[in-house]
Every structure is written in structure tokens, then in C-alpha cells.
Amino acid sequence: MTLTDVLDVVAGVLLLAGAVLSLIAAIGLLRFPDLLTRMHSATKPQVLGLLLVVVGLALRLRDPSATAILVLVAVFQMVTAPVASHMAGRASYRAGQVRKDLLVADELSDALPRLEENRGAP
């Protein structure tokens, strides 16, 4: 086996692992009961799955310009997905759309003022 064959096999394994993690994230979005656990499912395995796919593509393509674009995709995904998820979770908590009976620890209730009524869509 040459180095090219080994890199192709490693790239294939990474692509399959990334696809499986993205599939698990999609199943979690459908199966989890509340907003916070769905957001966890949407960010953690999905970002890791995308990173595995990006690394697999970089190993398979072996083109510096394509690798540079893939690095940009990975960096922007790692920066935007957790921040967007955090902001959506905080906004939904303020709107009263989080099931408090499923929370193990509620550290945000002390930091936010009490709301008179629930806001947002039901």
C-alpha cells in the first residue's frame, strides 16, 4: 500500500464517522423532549461530525486551495454554532419556553429578573 492509499482509507473512515455523527445529531433533534437538549444535539455532535467530514475531505482532495476553504468552513462553524445555540437558549429561557422540571441545575434563574408573564410563542 502506498501513502496515497492509506490517506484515502483514512479519509473514507473520517467521512463515514462524520456522516454518522451528523445523523445522530439529526435523530437527537427529533427525539429529545425539550429545547435545551435539542440544542445540545444540534451543536455538539453536528459540529464534530462536520469537522470530521472537513478533515476527511482535506485528506482526500490534497489541494491547498480546497484545504484553505475547508479550514475556513471549520473555523466559522466552530465560532458560530455554539454562540448561536447559547443565544437561542438564553432567549428561550427568558421567554419561559424551557421545561424547568427537566433542569438538573438552574443557574440562570438567579441571574435574570423574574418575569411577570411568559413571552414568546407557545
Automatic annotation (TrEMBL):
This protein's record includes keyword GTP-binding: no
Molecular function GO terms recorded: sodium:proton antiporter activity
Membrane-crossing residue ranges in chain numbering: 6-30, 42-59, 65-84
InterPro entries to which the protein is assigned, alphabetical: PhaG_MnhG_YufB (IPR005133)
Keyword entries, A-Z: Membrane, Transmembrane, Transmembrane helix
Family label: Belongs to the CPA3 antiporters (TC 2.A.63) subunit G family.
The protein, known as: Monovalent cation/H(+) antiporter subunit G
